[in-house]
């Protein structure tokens, strides 16, 4: 790993104690430390040491001599770094013309993915390294400290493996998405493509990935194909997550629950049975407001999911087709304004919700022992993330205790 991305190499992590003092509002996401589900502490302090959180609480109780360095937050808000659990960062080219056509009335379809597949296959490795690193850096500037990254624009054995190697330079959360769409050379024999994914492609790709994902939707893969790919991935030790029910109703959510996927992503078109299945599982519903924003589609019904007890995450879904943004504060603002999530729910979903969607307990919160991934806002409260849409409020970012922004 390069150590430049959202997940720096741990032995190089911040080894000098840092006290972040005079915090106006501290979001810990640990109800044992503060008020409500966000574990809010007012007039707080936070101590980072050895790459982890060493202490969090009211500043009146901060342990004496807790750190060598003091940062004065000046009454501003501090929260856990964003955990963006859904990204397609390894690609070449863009789809400006498709976006412009869509904004003049053309609908979004899965077929546009093939435009990016052609550009990605043609791109040299160093170009993919550069463009991926640039997106990761862009995400970090808006407060993302953990990011998931999928393949899915290569769709040959060599091109999928190459995309995963690029992703692995930046994150441990690497996802094999060979089943994104059927590539053009297999257009009239999709089952042969599924067989390739389930055999040689997975053999080459599984060693580089942690997760397996399938785009289970109209224009992509059906229920039987999705099950076959997830089963083949599981046989090689990969953990499942599913692109489910983005473009229309379908079996994606039910399959995600059936295989105990960490997350069902999009979840835009769901039935009562889908909601019930999610509520009685540990599969997180990851909502991707950037996709509905940029495809001018109806948003998922976050209230229905949350009110049924489904854990919800928010992620940026950065990709050149449906959601060309890395900006988690933007996603929070849209989720609050247009999906009727409360400001607190949206901040939880973009931090601890994302961590749950990646089955991680070391990120997404600032309890003692958590990785010291921290965001300082130029605002007195986390609510400003939705109250002040479009304003670049992230002014400081620490990853594993080391300051990387600010
Ligand atoms: O999550 N839904 C599938 N994949 C992406 C879109 C990819 C593209 O259009 O290039 C998504 O929205
Ligand atoms: Fe996606």
UniProtKB/TrEMBL annotation:
A biological-process GO annotation: L-histidine catabolic process to glutamate and formate
UniProt cofactor(s): Zn(2+); Fe(3+)
GO cellular component terms given for this protein: cytoplasm
Keywords: Cytoplasm, Histidine metabolism, Hydrolase, Iron, Metal-binding, Zinc
Reactions catalysed: 4-imidazolone-5-propanoate + H2O = N-formimidoyl-L-glutamate
Cross-referenced PANTHER family: IMIDAZOLONEPROPIONASE, IMIDAZOLONEPROPIONASE-RELATED
Identification of the protein by name: Imidazolonepropionase
Origin species: Geodermatophilus africanus
């Amino acid at each position: 790993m390069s150590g430049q991305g959202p997940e720096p190499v741990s032995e190089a992590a911040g080894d000098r104690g840092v006290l972040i003092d005079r915090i106006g509002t501290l979001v810990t996401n640990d109800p044992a430390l503060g008020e409500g589900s966000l574990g809010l502490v007012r007039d707080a302090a936070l101590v980072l040491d050895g790459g982890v959180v060493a202490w969090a609480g009211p500043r009146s109780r901060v342990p004496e001599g807790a750190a060598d360095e003091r940062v004065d937050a000046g009454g501003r808000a501090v929260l856990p770094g964003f955990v963006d659990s859904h990204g397609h960062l390894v690609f070449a080219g863009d789809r400006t013309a498709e976006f412009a056509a869509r904004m003049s009335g053309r609908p979004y379809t899965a077929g546009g993915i093939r435009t990016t597949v052609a550009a990605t296959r043609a791109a040299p490795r160093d170009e993919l390294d550069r463009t991926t690193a640039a997106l990761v850096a862009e995400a970090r500037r808006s407060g993302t400290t953990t990011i998931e990254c999928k393949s899915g624009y290569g769709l040959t054995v060599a091109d999928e493996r190459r995309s995963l190697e690029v992703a692995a330079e930046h994150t441990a959360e690497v996802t094999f998405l060979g089943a994104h769409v059927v590539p053009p050379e297999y257009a009239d024999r999709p089952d042969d493509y599924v067989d390739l994914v389930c055999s040689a492609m997975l053999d080459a790709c599984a060693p580089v990935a942690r997760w397996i994902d399938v785009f289970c939707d109209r224009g992509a893969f059906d229920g039987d194909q999705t099950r076959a790919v997830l089963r083949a991935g599981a046989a090689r030790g990969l953990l499942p997550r599913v692109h489910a029910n983005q473009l229309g109703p379908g079996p994606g959510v039910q399959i995600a629950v059936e295989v105990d996927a960490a997350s069902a992503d999009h979840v835009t078109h769901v039935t009562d049975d889908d909601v019930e299945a999610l509520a009685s599982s540990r599969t997180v519903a990851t909502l991707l407001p950037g996709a509905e924003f940029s495809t001018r589609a109806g948003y998922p019904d976050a209230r229905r999911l949350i009110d049924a007890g489904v854990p919800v995450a928010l992620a940026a879904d950065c990709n050149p087709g449906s959601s060309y943004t890395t900006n988690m504060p933007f996603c929070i603002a849209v989720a609050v304004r247009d999906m009727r999530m409360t400001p607190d729910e949206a901040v939880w979903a973009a931090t601890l919700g994302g961590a749950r969607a990646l089955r991680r307990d070391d990120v997404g919160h600032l309890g003692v022992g958590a990785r010291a991934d921290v965001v300082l806002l130029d605002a007195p409260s986390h609510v400003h993330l939705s109250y002040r849409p479009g304003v670049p409020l992230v002014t400081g970012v620490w990853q594993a205790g080391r300051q990387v922004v600010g």
